[in-house]
Structure formats: C-alpha cells, structure tokens
Amino acid sequence: EVQLVESGGGLVQAGESLRLSCAASGFTFDRYAIGWFRQAPGKEREGVACISNNDGESFYANSVKGRFTISTDYAQNMVFLQMNSLKPEDTAVYYCHTFIQIPGPRDVWGQGTQVTVSS
Predict the structure, then answer these.
(1) What angle do CA 68, 21, 16 make, to 5 degrees?
(2) pLDDT in single tens digits along all 119 residues of the chain
(3) N or C: which end of the chain has fewer CB within 10 A?
C-alpha cells in the first residue's frame, strides 16, 4: 500500500522548535521529489518546502526560509522538516506530499500532523 505517515506535531511556544517526520512506504522513495505542505484554519493549503531526489536541492517558501530545513534519509524512507524559531503564524496541519509514477501516476498525501504555536 502506498502511504505517507507524518508524526512529530504538537503544541509549542513561539521561538521553540519541532521536528516533523514522514515515513514513506509502498513505492520507491528515492525516485521522486518530496515535500511538505501546510494548511491553517480558513486558509488554502500552501507549499512549505521540497527536496529533489536527484541532487538534494531544497526549496522553501519565503515565510519559512532560514527557519525550516527539509532533509531525507533514503535508507529509512523518511523525510524530515526541522522547524526552528516557530511563530504563531506557523500554526497549521502539516502534510507530507509526493507525486509518483509507479504505481500511478498519482498524488500521495499523508494524513497530516497538527502544529500549534502559542504566543
């Protein structure tokens, strides 16, 4: 079964850190780019960060650049999002995402993990 499962969310205070994890299964993880999205209440889902499977180049939304870091562990089929200097506006449900060709083509989304940052 093709699956992405996030973990690591929680409630923190502004300025603190969290590390999100996403475990992939059911497809060849290192064949595809992978990323993180988030959706705050009443807002559209937005891209946060993604990382290339070819050269490891990463891309970030301007709102998180310099504070968040995406990384992968291909041996464990995992992707991580290290979030530092968290702000209340980072509060959202965070989703892991990839687009795969085999089996596919199809979007693959995780179930999401809640991050709440109090001021």
Answers:
(1) 45
(2) 999 999 999 999 999 999 999 999 999 999 999 999 999 999 999 999 999 999 999 999 999 999 999 999 999 999 999 999 999 999 999 999 999 998 889 999 999 999 999 99
(3) N
